[in-house]
Amino acid sequence: MTVITIDVVSDFICAWCFIGKRQLDQAVRLYQKTYPGGRNDEFRITWRPFYLGYSDSATSIHKLELADTKLAHMTPEQREMLGRRMERIGSSVGINFKWGGKVGRTYDAHKLVYMSRSMSTDAQNELVEKLFRAYHENEQDISCKDHLRTFAASVGLAEDQVNECFESPTIEESLKEEAELYRAQTEGCGVPTFLIQGEYKLSGAQDVQDFMDLFVQVKENHA
């Protein structure tokens, strides 16, 4: 058996990060289904924090208000074309992008994922999926602690664990240090960035085959 480790550096409000996650998921399933002995190999995926900082506001703002600022250099026609392009790309990996709702800071969402590392890789992945879907498909504000508590409970995080992750200065400091470390590793690449087996780096929403090629390389090197 080969253990393939993947550190994913991303932020939940990044559309390309959601697309990248879906492509990674597809690649893992394809590898385990088609590569000889692949179903016996283990993938250990850890989600690392990245803070895009789209808004300086301490409170959430509507996504359209943010778009008016970030896309002010684009004409309405160009913005519409960009939206259709993202919807087309998202649809190819099963994402139904919607552009309503609010955007806020993602610190607490990353804290939940940090706490979920004590659980199984599947539970961590499920929580990450819920956060992406809540923001990009369900138009929910993932800076809202009430929403976050619901997501946490759905994957088995206990209430006292959730309270700890929101209130603990130790966790906050650990995440701050981790974010700085991985920001350095993504310099010039942006997010999402996938660090595989501590040796290989893929940036952006990579094609499924790009992941597959690296998984096979890791497997053959291990053999």
Automatic annotation (TrEMBL):
Domain of life: Eukaryota
CDD domains hit by this protein: DsbA_FrnE
InterPro entries in UniProt: DSBA-like_thioredoxin_dom, Thioredoxin-like_sf
Entry-linked SUPFAM superfamilies: Thioredoxin-like
Domain DSBA-like thioredoxin, chain residue ranges per copy: 5-213
Pfam families in alphabetical order: DSBA (PF01323)
Gene Ontology terms, MF aspect: oxidoreductase activity
PANTHER family on file: GLUTATHIONE S-TRANSFERASE KAPPA, THIOREDOXIN SUPERFAMILY PROTEIN
Descriptive protein name: DSBA-like thioredoxin domain-containing protein
Source organism (scientific name): Pochonia chlamydosporia 170
Taxon lineage: Eukaryota, Fungi, Dikarya, Ascomycota, Pezizomycotina
